[in-house]
Amino acid sequence: MDALLLSRWQFAITTIYHFLFVPLTLGLTIWVALLETCYVRTKRPHWKEPCRQLVKFFGTLFLINFSLGVVTGIVQEFHFGMNWSEYSRFMGDIFGAPLALEALTAFFLESTFLGIWMFGWDKLSPKVHCLCAWLIAIGSNLSAFWILVANSFMQHPVGYVVQNGRAEMNDFLALVTNPYVVGEYSHALFSGITSAGLLVLAVSAWKYVHDEKSRNAFRHTLKAGAIYLAIGVLGVMGSGHMHTQYLAEANPMKLASMEALWEDADPAPFAVMAVIDQNNHKNACEIKIPALFSLMLYNKPEGEVKGINTINAEMTAKYGNGDYRPDVLGMFWSFRIMVACGGAMLLIAFAVAALSHLNRLEQYPCLLKILPLTLPLPFLANTAGWFVAEGGRQPWIVVGLQKTADALSPNLTGLEVFLTMTGFTLLYLLLIIAALYVAIRYIKKTSIPLESHEGRDA
Amino acid sequence: MDYQVIWFILITVLFTGFFFLEGFDYGVGMLAPFVSKREEDRSLILRTIGPVWDGNEVWMITAGGALFAAFPHVYATMFSTFYMALFLMLVALILRGVAFELRTKEKCPCWQKLWDAAIFIGSIVPAFLWGVAVTDLAAGLPIGENMVYQGNFLNLLSPYSICGGMVFVLVFAYHGASFLQLRLADKGLLYRIQDLGKCAGSLAAIAYVLYLILTWQNTDLLARPCAMGLFIATAVFFLLSLFLFMKTPGKYSFVLGSLAIASVTLGFFAGMFPRLMVSSLSPDWSLTITNASSTEYTLSIMTVAAFVLVPVVLVYQIWTYYIFRKRITTSDVSHY
Do B51 and A412 touch (CB under 8 A)? Predict the structure, then answer.
């Protein structure tokens, strides 16, 4: 068994799994903090108690999700040393700093205030308690920032010099202000809001349909959730668009493989569908919209986009013989899955927002019944997006500096990695079953009554 | 003082904080099943660390992150060397972390028993493995010229390292009992915990003496007078703490027990200095603060960050303990 291949699988499995929970945490923590602010500030007496219960309701869902995110996150931190020790040696001078800063600024903040928030309902004033919710939100999002600073270095190294057999940091500010971070962080933040928004809609719709007592309370969250989701999806699309334009200069290989564009083109077409022939480095057939790709990149229907084969030849000249093409098939379709899910969620957001604004949700019961089924959409989009980000970096672990194959811990045997990979996968499966079971039972059994006549004017 | 020494000290501080704080968390997790069979009692016991265990665990994560940032070679060698051991530790920590969240969510007794078992495993396994790991670091591991480990999982286990693991488990169990004496109100439970604490503490004292003898034989840590002094101070603190604990457990026995944990950690690092991992193959191949560190530039930035951030963290973590300073009673558990 090949320790390298298995380590890559292990990292992929654990990262993707971890990243199911992370975006939801980012968005849900802000949602809960907003809701609690609403609870603290509201002057309407009949709304006060239901609002508090809603905070606790979504707070509990957040906590279940958060606990899985935290425990799977520890695995990620240990992974770099366990499986990728040569990477840690080569990059440690740069990569360790954001990780340590993440722990110091973010992990302490979120976990400490989470403890206070969970158990401090009757020990703190409502305002201080609400402040704790915001501190958790800040902590979680800071954590995402630092880890994406680290990830951006792998995608687009800046602020370093290679000497003494390793990459050494020479400009911390450049590392933190890496333009790549801007795109990655905003995209991740908005995808978090999107994930949380859709979860809120799915859960609220289910409660609205199946739990008559709670209907009025969840009518409110349906409306607010739709707006939250719309903000998220629009932000995700905007930041994604901006970041893709930036990729043209920062990582043209990733960009070209997202579009399965093998040869240079001016203006470049956008392939809606393509049958990709990776062995011969071309598309067997494709459905193209002329000039659209150039338009998306340069805001005008012209301009050259470099093809995969051209970039591969350039990289061969620069870094020596080798294949520098990522998995184009995976890249092409992951990107499309991500965009399609995003589009579907935007439609959902607009539909629910419009109907609840017009007070006409009741007339479309099937929309409400379908909503819970759309819950996988953001998770599918997040996973696909993560594949585009990380798969597009291959065969590099740090683009241009170190290949993934050179990063492995030399002392590992295939058997060891096989055991741990199987262990993590099975454990994670059991955990997600337990967590989903608990979450679904909790959603079913929790009722939040709100008087209807008072509900309407609230 | 140069940055490498500062970071050696900071790593020492982080590990001291980790062993002190997670020490009682692990201890509470280990003791809970033995104190009582009743679920209400166990909930009460686990509730004492409910608001704080997650923040405490971050001390371990920060210690790992700080090793990565300041001594990347140590991070790389240590984590790849302890590969299988860390896997077991991660499984245990995952079970424990999730268990705290999930155990209260279903009223069914078998569900709660399942997660109580997870918390027990998640507490005893990391405690044991940290003991093994720390002992191995000092005793030396077959680390080659290029800083790569040349042994396998079984090389990590020796009578000495297993004794180290036992010491950690027993000391943490005692520390947990000592902590619970401050946090619970129910007299019956307190007596029961005192009995368990006496038992764990006495065994810990015996194990520690054995451990010192083995350390004398297997390592050069005790050759350094200040390390020797700290290891002896540990014994004094611990015996005083245990003596008080047997009569009237309370603040003083807890503080003295904590001092014992702090001084043994300091003693370990004082004996190791300037090494962080000892190579059993050649003294030149040991990982030290000079051959394993980051550049001065990185260390200087991280130093500023640590000196600004660690005090802030301490302030709000102490505030947490202040908020939850009252002893836990049944009424605290019922509404959650």
Answer: no
Q: Same structural domain for residues A307 and A451?
A: no
Domain count, chain A: 2
Q: Are residues A315 and A429 in the same domain?
A: no
Same domain assignment for residues A151 and A84: yes
In this complex, is the C-beta atom of B324 within 8 Å of any C-beta atom belonging to chain A?
yes
In single-letter form, the type of residue at position B182 comes to L
Torsion on CA atoms B300, B303, B304, B307, rounded to nearest 10: -160
Would you list the domain boundaries of chain B? 3-217+272-334
So what's the pLDDT on residue A108?
A: 92
Q: Check if the beta carbon of residue B48 is closer than 8 Å to that of residue B183.
A: yes
Question: Which of the listed residues A306, A325, A344 is the one where a domain comes to its end?
Answer: A325
Residue A308 above 90 pLDDT? no
Tokens read off for A368: 């409400």
Q: Which letter, b or e, does each residue of B161-172 get, where b requires 16 or more Cβ atoms within 10 Å of its Cβ?
A: bebbbbbbbbbb
* Residues A113 and A28 placed together within one structural domain of the fold: yes
Q: Examine the fold and report which residue of A325, A341, A363 is the final residue of a domain before the chain moves on.
A: A325
Same domain membership, residue A434 and residue A362: yes
Nearest-angstrom CA–CA distance, A68 and A139: 17
Residue A452 has pLDDT above 80, yes or no: no
ipTM computed for the complex:
0.88
CA distance A179 to A189: 16
Both A335 and A307 in a single domain?
A: no
Whether B321 has its CB under 8 Å from any CB of chain A: the answer is no
Select the residue from B100, B105, B324 to test the A interface by mutation, using most A Cβ atoms within 10 A. B105
CA distance B58 to B77: 22
- pLDDT digits over A52-110, tens only? 889 999 999 999 999 999 999 999 989 998 999 999 999 988 988 999 999 999 999 99
Count of CB contacts below 8 A, A vs B? 222
Nearest to B323 among A64, A82, A120 (CB): A120
Query: Alpha-carbon distance B225 to A42, whole Å?
Result: 65
pLDDT of A95-131, one tens digit each?
889 999 999 999 999 999 999 999 888 888 999 999 9
- Confirm if B261 and B172 have CB atoms less than 8 A apart: no
Q: Strands (DSSP E) along A210-313, which ranges?
A: 270-277, 282-289
Instruction: Mark whether A45 and A134 lie in a shared domain.
Output: yes
DSSP label at B248? Answer: S
Exposed (0-12), middle (13-18) or buried (19+): which is A309, by Cβ within 10 Å?
A: middle
Any chain B CB within 8 A of the CB of A420?
Answer: yes
Is A20 in the same domain as A32? yes
Considering only CB atoms, A112 lies closest to which of B80, B153, B317, namely B317
Q: Would the CB atoms of B105 and A410 count as touching at under 8 Å?
A: no
**pLDDT of A453:** 52
Give me the domain span that covers residue A307. 256-325
pLDDT at A190 over 70: yes
